[in-house]
Write a structure and sequence with these properties.
By secondary structure, the protein is α/β, with parallel strands linked by helices. It contains 11 helices and 12 strands.
Length: 319
């Protein structure tokens, strides 16, 4: 089944060239089914690139998905044309009365800035609180994962001495091997990271409402969730394209930052050699499992705020 996106979204042509089944909104309107409604809050500077990455992952489900794009505020973007934002993105005021089956909040290049100093932090907190009563299940990626863990659970973020950048081996925890989100995962797999901060595994293990699903000896915490399945936190970037880490590395070099060479990414760890891409299968499986088991299996057919409150109460009583 396809994902449903606006007819003129730039990602549409890219995904068509990759033989990914998308359905223009004009065609989907004539189908008598209820697609899943998925909202994406895109905080990344290069919004077209990020939305294409996420739409590619969402397209692997057998479910029809109606995707909407959300912007945090109306400030101009240095990396995305105003015409694109005006045409395809909505403001929070426009969607705050809606309910959604799934919600994805992307990372942001804010890893070295205190949350309280981020100019949209108050709005970010409002949207995160709103998601608890208007969304069935939410995925927080990288910076958004740290922001949500701090906001909802009071978990401290620690700055690293050096940026964590590269592709690292991860292990599924023994206690999480039967978790629906990890169905079909290999016990060991690779995933990209690109961040300056971390939330420590020990703090999660000591928190009764959360469970660590996947971690890494070198990269630390990677994937965890709330025990009711309505929030998942991914500290890495399973959505990254093959060249994304290279682009970031070259950007930092040009900025005079003198970054470390990303680990386990280039052949022989040589930036002049091709990159080794070995995270796509797990990234696709992660999002497919999330849609199938934590969105589609939980969401009510009549999606409204009252039904989501009832869903939350049912989860609370079952714990």
């Amino acid at each position: 089944m396809p994902i449903r996106i606006p007819d003129e979204l730039p990602a549409a042509n890219i995904l068509k060239q990759e033989n990914i089944f998308i359905m223009p909104a004009s065609r989907a309107e004539h189908q008598d089914i209820r697609p899943l409604r998925v909202l994406i809050l895109n905080l990344m500077p290069k919004k077209i690139e990020t939305e294409t990455q996420l739409l590619r992952l969402l397209s692997n489900s057998a479910l029809q998905i109606d995707v909407e794009l959300l912007r945090i505020d109306d400030r101009p973007s240095k990396n995305t044309p105003k015409e694109h934002l005006d045409a395809f993105y909505r403001s929070f005021e426009e969607i705050k009365d809606n309910c959604y089956d799934g919600f994805i909040i992307t990372g942001a290049p804010l890893g070295q800035i205190a949350f309280e100093e981020v100019h949209y932090w108050e709005r970010m907190q409002t949207i995160m609180d709103w998601s608890k009563s208007h969304v069935v299940s939410t995925i927080f990626l990288c910076w958004a994962a740290h922001a949500a863990l701090s906001h909802f659970y009071g978990l401290q973020r620690h700055l690293r001495e050096e940026k964590l950048s590269g592709v690292y081996e991860h292990q599924v925890r023994e206690a999480a091997k039967d978790h629906p989100l990890l169905r079909g995962f290999d016990e060991f797999f690779y995933a990209p990271h690109s961040r300056y901060a971390e939330v420590r595994v020990k703090a999660i293990d000591e928190h009764p409402e959360l469970e660590v699903l996947v971690d890494s000896e070198k990269a630390g915490l990677y994937l965890l969730g709330s025990k009711d399945g309505r929030q998942f936190f991914v500290t890495g970037h399973p959505e990254y394209d093959a060249n994304t880490i290279d682009d970031e590395y070259r950007r930092d070099l040009d900025a005079g930052i003198d970054p470390q060479v990303p680990e386990n990414y280039y052949a022989d760890n040589d930036p002049n050699q091709p990159y080794k891409v070995r995270w796509r299968s797990h990234g696709n499986l992660l999002f497919t499992n999330w849609l199938n088991y934590h969105v589609y299996q939980l969401t009510p057919f009549n999606l409204n705020e009252a039904s989501l409150v009832a869903l939350s109460q049912a989860h609370a009583e079952s714990l």
